[in-house]
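Weekly structure sync, notes
Attendees: PL (lead), two postdocs, one rotation student
Agenda item 3: pending single-chain targets
PL asked that the sequence for the first pending target be pasted directly into the notes so everyone works from the same version. It is reproduced below exactly as submitted, 436 residues in total.
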Amino acid sequence: MNKDVPLEYEVNLYLDKNITETLRIMVPSNLEAEKKYMEALRNGFKEIYPNVTIEFDERTVSDEQYVTSVNSAIASGNVPDLFWTNTAYYYYLISKKAVINLEPYYTVAGACSDDKRLDLEADYYKSFFDMSTYDGRRYIVPRSMDSVVTFVNTELLAAAGIDFETDERLTNDWTWDDCISVSREVAAWIQSPAGQASKFKSSYALEAELSWEAVYNAMMLSYGVEVFDENGNIAVDSEETKKLANDIRALRAEGRVMSRTEASLFGGGNSAFVFSSAGPANMAVNSLIADNFDALPFPLIGENPKIGCGFVGCGISATAEGVKRDLAWAFLHYMISQEGQMTLINGGLATPSIRVDLAEEKQWSKGFQDLNLDAWLVHGDKKVATNFFMAKEPSCANELLTSVQSFMKDVCDSTSISVDMCVKRFVERIEEAIAQ
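Predicted structure, written out during the meeting:
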């Protein structure tokens, strides 16, 4: 896929409903929920186009495997018509010229006056569509939006003498200082005789998930850390970066305040807080926490707080042309229609819909109306997607993401290495990433 991908082409939104065709869609083989969602969409789309066969091209999706999976799909000679992707991965698809610029479809659909119309301004959270841009053009249709929230173990808080309903620190405007204040109280109780005699004796207060880009990106920006300056120069060797690293290390050193970077404790009832973009239904599958959790937004850090967010979606393969390309667009249009979004919700997707109406009506959280569902929706002006990698060529994106992740792991887990050395290694990794 090294030929030039056209920026302009003819589109047809009005396909024959009886068209006979096959669509192949890349689906994460290792993410059962994702396969379930795509299966629901496949069944729903079949009702509109009964003679269209949708095949799944199952590939491993992870930070370590996405690039390999995409390259394997391209090399197979049977490239999927739609690539599954997200905020952290889509840039690589562009670097491989694997997906097309979707502006011709967005333009034509935006001018329609019937059921083919897309009114991004009125009906959708347009910012999530704009996250999938390169050089001013959108390449991905977002299926759903992810926003980092803080899940709360209300049972553990209560055991530590903290009432989730009445504590003035636990609101939708809570700050990093509030979070750490409560976490210290929880940690002190865990280490007390009462805590050590309880089922929470090995628990932590905060499972911060600091090696996850949606968390580390928001924290870095809140601290004023930039990976590159306005001229594209590496900017991480700064006092802001060192303060972030030292603050994290200080919290880790306090004992039970903050867990390791990849602890997976909350679902088992062993942490008071965890940062996550899951929906309430996804958390409730953990039997040990199912009846004892609620949610708050990601805590507001500093004077310019940011909250991590992103999307999951699909892009149309550069190999799909003519009718096949139009059919791929029809699938994407169905995916974000009210019908398609309700199909996803009924199929188990439990994060806010990309559609404003369904998100604000809380259609995505049936059965959990007693929880603080606004945690997923508030502070929209503070939400940011990870995009520092866009300062460099798309082919560098994966290595740049890995370099930041490695830095956070060094800070959290390699305490024998000084903060200055962590930053030095950080710079070196970035230099290696952009030299490719």
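Discussion points:
- Residues 32-48 form the longest helix (17 residues).
- The chain is about 40% helix and 15% strand.
Action: rotation student to compare against the earlier draft before next sync.
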